[in-house]
Amino acid sequence: MSEKLKIHLNQFIDHEMAQLYSCAFCKFIPYENELSCSGCSKLYCSDCLESKNYICLDCRNQPNKTSFRNLQRVIQQQIHFMIVKCPHCQNTFKFEKYKEHIKFCGNPKCDFEACGELIKLEKVYKLKEANLKEYSFCSLECKYAFTIKKISKDNREEYESQVKTIISNLVKEESLHEDCKKAQPIAKTSIILQPKVELPVQSESSSFMISTDGSCEFAWDCSNSSNVLQFTNENKTVFLQETGYFFRTVIAKKFFKSGIFYWEIEADERTDNELKIGVSTKKDFNLNSSFSDHDFGFAFYGLGQLRHGSNAAGNKYGKNFKNKKGDYLGICLDMNKGTLSFALNNDFLGIAFTDEGLRHEPIYAAVSLLHKAGMKLRTGKPLPHWFKI
Fold first, then answer.
1. What is the Cα–Cα distance from 37 to 45, expressed in whole angstroms?
2. Is 327 found in the same domain as 179?
3. pTM, two decimal places
């Protein structure tokens, strides 16, 4: 792939905004090296200007007015924060993150389920089972963690020699000199395993959650949020206070993978503006907007309404939920049936959404806050009996 990344304006979610920042010649937006005409302010990518002998479309009859300058930093930042849709995987990313994503999109994912990162093809680690099934991993750590988890707890003596082989191979491969690694870019070490396997164990550090009784543990991802939000209580309490009226969204650090999940949002007495509470099937979008403005967001709005793919319209549902002390909203995601339900305190409000998108991972818990608002996340409880799902 070329070092100079350029994306056509139609690939951006906001086409109208992309039109403003696209090159007047090719209609693409470059990641960098975009220039502005000092005479009319039209934007051009440096490649097009060079091929057109640095002549502006509008100012070409007035060459004395034609000169070009780099974009102001604030405009460059606006471009980098625009949302791009990948044509390969259909996921969305900020432009600044898309540059890294596109390098590996289409590559296989790491077969260690707790990782799942895209693999750099120049450095892939292989593992082959006795039934000739082959796995690929992004690192030695993932390769051997995957292998050890497949060893049956009931037959540790039987597999003792295999564990020793694993450790021996790890030591050998890690001790290779960097020059040797360059000479062997693809590791082909194979370990023959018995076909009996054990499912991966979900650990506290896993990026996903699986549940059958509703109980789950997670916190908000403070590293991927607006800098105006205040996080406390191990990132389970969030508060917003600003002069502007913009929704700010927080997303769970872990995603729901399969099963039934239950969590609660406790009201904050300082809240002046109702929250939007629910789930999102994506995490890479403009978090300075409400997740439920988009088709991938499903929310209960504290005014007693639902929101999905709209910032202004939705069906009436439930009761008001805002800032009354002691009030809490219970949320239940049933990925087996593809439903999202809510309860205010102990009062079940009914199934709010039934959607095929609610059956498939990843799904993230999400809350949007406006102007002055706060809430506390409560997790670790099984699904209450009053949820009639």
1. 11
2. no
3. 0.51
CB neighbourhood size of 347 (10 A): 11
Q: Does residue 1 form part of some domain?
A: no
How many residues in the chain? 389
Do strands 372-378 and 255-267 pair parallel, antiparallel, or not at all (unpaired)?
A: antiparallel
Backbone region of residue 64 per phi and psi (left: phi > 0; alpha: psi in -120 to 50; beta: other values): alpha
Of 248, 202, 252, nearest to 228 by C-alpha is 248
Tell me, what amino acid is at 39? G
Q: State residue 183's pLDDT score.
A: 39
CATH for 286: 2.60.120.920
Distances (CA, A) of 198 to 146, 207, 361: 10, 19, 22
> Dihedrals φ, ψ of 224, to 5°?
-125, 70
d(CA 189, CA 155): 24
Are 365 and 218 in contact, with CB atoms under 8 Å apart?
Answer: yes
The pLDDT value given to residue 301: 97
Contact call for residues 360 and 375 (beta carbons, < 8 A): no
Look up the domain containing 277 and give its range: 208-378
Listed residues 165, 182, 201: the one ending a domain: 201
> Please, what is the Cα angle at 329 between 325 and 333, to 5 degrees?
165
Residue 105's pLDDT is what? Answer: 64
**Are residue 226 and residue 360 in the same domain, yes or no?**
yes
What averages of pLDDT result for each successive group of 10 residues across the chain (389 residues)?
64 83 84 79 83 79 65 80 78 78 67 64 65 73 72 50 57 46 39 41 62 90 88 95 91 94 96 96 92 96 95 92 94 96 94 96 96 96 85
- CATH of residue 23's domain is 3.30.40.10
Q: How many Cα neighbours within 13 Å face the side chain of 43?
A: 19
Q: Which residues contact 322 (CB under 8 A, 6 or more apart)?
A: 267, 271, 274, 275, 302
Task: Kindly state the tokens that stand for 38.
Answer: 């000092």
DSSP state string for 285-320: S-SSS-GGGSTTEEEEETTTEEESS-SS---B-S--
Number of domains present in the structure of the chain: 3
| 192-to-147, 165, 183 alpha-carbon distances in Å | 10, 10, 25
